[in-house]
Amino acid sequence: MSKSPESVAVVGAGLVGSLIALGLARKGYKVTVFDYRPDSRDQSSGKTNLRSINLAVSARGIDAMRYVDEDMSKEALKGIIPMYGRMIHDTKGKQESQIYGLFGESINSIDRAKLNESLYDQIDKFNKLNGDLKIELKFKYKVKNVDLKGVPTVVCVDPQGSDKETDVVKFEYDFIIGADGAFSQVRSSLQRYIRMNYSQEYIDMCYLELYIPPGPNGSFSIDPNHLHIWPRKDFMLIALANADGSFTSTFFGPWKLTESLKEPKQITEFFTTNFPDAVDLIGIDKVVECFTTYPKGALMHVTCNQYHHQDKCIIIGDAAHSMVPFYGQGMNCGFEDVRILLQLLEKHKGNRTDAFEEYTKTRHEDLKAILKLALDNYNEMSTKIGYSLF
Ligand SMILES: Cc1cc2nc3c(=O)[nH]c(=O)nc-3n(C[C@H](O)[C@H](O)[C@H](O)COP(=O)(O)OP(=O)(O)OC[C@H]3O[C@@H](n4cnc5c(N)ncnc54)[C@H](O)[C@@H]3O)c2cc1C
Ligand SMILES: *[C@@H]1O[C@H](CO)[C@@H](O)[C@H](O)[C@H]1NC(C)=O
Ligand SMILES: *[C@@H]1O[C@H](CO)[C@@H](O)[C@H](O)[C@H]1NC(C)=O
Ligand SMILES: *[C@@H]1O[C@H](CO)[C@@H](O)[C@H](O)[C@H]1NC(C)=O
Ligand SMILES: *[C@@H]1O[C@H](CO)[C@@H](O)[C@H](O)[C@H]1NC(C)=O
């Protein structure tokens, strides 16, 4: 790029926002990132007091990480654990391995915290090496809306203001990228400027995270190289390994059923009947504690089209497509959005109108197909045998 660099605001410093910020900065854009949360690195004391939560990362996501930053992908991928198949647990605790592919294709378990830490480290490193073209991180800035009438403007609640409702600060950029997740404010704003088709649907299922501690001396108490599944007719449990010998386990069940499990006695009976071997691994007291105190998450399916307005604004990641997690591709798809958008900006030599138009035109069919697969997997799982996960 010649002259002064083009400026871009990225709304959302989640996994997808951080990755595109890094990718754009490395291509010479002047990047500012907004997030309403505080910087997670500030909690200097004991950053590992949080339990690890893991994600399935696939070739789709890994390719995108490599494209943006080879060093970052190396660092983040160090602790991944390949899963070559799924391990089905029946109600007697018997296990049966089902291998994914003849040629050993696998998905991988990756630590979510480690992944976002690697991204932040790489942003810090970039800033140290680039005196006047730093990635500016604006934490504790809640974006209320974006104004796209004239110069693209990010409107935030003023963190120094006395009134959270009315005191705002505004920042102008050449363009804005919305990576602010499933409840995207950027998407809501965009809907005022374009004829966006949009749908949002909650499925009747919630999720709750459980935790399987490491075995003696940090050993794995079940096979780490499988995605463990306890499929039951209307509900299920899954578990993915963490590098420290533990597993993150997630219970999925209909809201009514899950919320009906209130009393320790009910929970104990439900778990020991349906997941006896998992109870041995997690510990019944922990199961009860999780059910009675941990938040239960909703799952929704969001689609839209189109994704951009002129050369001023575009949405990516969960802001543009939120899928139910039964295909393990939400973040992977968001990462792929990043790779494709960066490649199109390069292809069109920075002509954003052309790049955004081609993005919307070519990306939508792929996204539609993946979202449908995720929902089909859920429908099949909840009506048939329940073996179709991932
Ligand atoms: C139970 C479960 C399991 C999953 N498992 C997998 C898996 O195995 N593999 C996989 O690929 N995906 C998985 N996903 C999906 C994955 O978590 C998401 O696709 C991914 O986190 C989306 O990243 P994102 O950066 O687009 O959005 P988010 O992670 O939601 O980040 C959005 C960011 O924007 C910020 N923000 C939001 N609103 C504002 C605002 N108004 N102003 C300023 N900042 C704002 C938020 O603070 C946040 O930091 C799973 C999801 C669930 C629920
Ligand atoms: C990074 O991960 C940690 C641990 O999961 C979380 O507390 C923090 O909010 C995350 N930060 C971002 C910006 O995603
Ligand atoms: C754990 O490690 C210690 C020290 O190396 C060893 O003495 C002990 O036998 C190990 N325990 C098990 C269950 O492997
Ligand atoms: C929106 O939906 C209508 C009706 O299905 C369709 O005709 C139209 O092409 C869609 N627009 C976009 C941008 O997808
Ligand atoms: C981008 O390309 C289109 C034609 O495809 C052209 O009309 C437009 O002026 C170009 N925009 C810029 C900023 O060069």
Write the layout of secondary structure elements.
Elements: E1 7-11, H1 15-26, E2 30-35, E3 54-57, H2 59-68, H3 70-77, E4 81-83, E5 85-89, E6 95-99, E7 107-111, H4 112-129, E8 136-139, E9 143-147, E10 153-157, E11 168-172, E12 175-178, H5 185-190, E13 197-212, E14 226-231, E15 236-241, E16 247-253, H6 255-260, H7 264-274, H8 276-282, H9 284-293, E17 297-305, E18 308-309, E19 313-315, E20 321-322, H10 330-347, H11 352-383
Parallel strand pairs: 1-2, 1-12, 2-8, 5-14, 12-19
Antiparallel strand pairs: 3-7, 4-7, 5-6, 9-10, 10-11, 13-16, 13-17, 14-15, 15-16, 17-20, 18-19
Helix pairs in contact: 1-4, 1-10, 2-3, 2-10, 3-4, 7-8, 7-9, 10-11
Bound molecules: flavin-adenine dinucleotide and 2-acetamido-2-deoxy-beta-D-glucopyranose (NAG) (4 copies).
GO biological process, one term: pyridine nucleotide biosynthetic process
GO cellular component, one term: mitochondrial outer membrane
Catalytic activity: L-kynurenine + NADPH + O2 + H(+) = 3-hydroxy-L-kynurenine + NADP(+) + H2O
Provide structural commentary.
This protein is an alpha+beta fold. It has two domains: 7-82 and 109-200 and 301-380, FAD/NAD(P)-binding domain (3-Layer(bba) Sandwich), CATH 3.50.50.60; 202-298, no CATH class. It is built from eleven helices and 20 strands. The chain has helices at 15-26, 59-68, 70-77, 112-129, 185-190, 255-260, 264-274, 276-282, 284-293, 330-347, 352-383, and strands at residues 7-11, 30-35, 54-57, 81-83, 85-89, 95-99, 107-111, 136-139, 143-147, 153-157, 168-172, 175-178, 197-212, 226-231, 236-241, 247-253, 297-305, 308-309, 313-315, 321-322. The strands form four sheets. An eight-stranded mixed sheet has the order 6-5-14-15-16-13-17-20, sandwiched between helices. Strand 9 and strand 10 (153-157) form a beta hairpin. Helix 1 (15-26) packs parallel to helix 4 and helix 7 (264-274) packs across helix 9. The model is unreliable at 44-50 and 385-390 (pLDDT under 50). One 2-acetamido-2-deoxy-beta-D-glucopyranose binds at residues 351, 353-354. Residues 11-17, 34-37, 55-56, 142-143, 179-181, 185, 207, 250, 297, 317-318, 325, 328-332, 334 line the site of flavin-adenine dinucleotide. InterPro entries: FAD-bd, FAD/NAD-bd_sf. Residues 7-371 form the FAD-binding domain. GO terms for molecular function: FAD binding; kynurenine 3-monooxygenase activity.
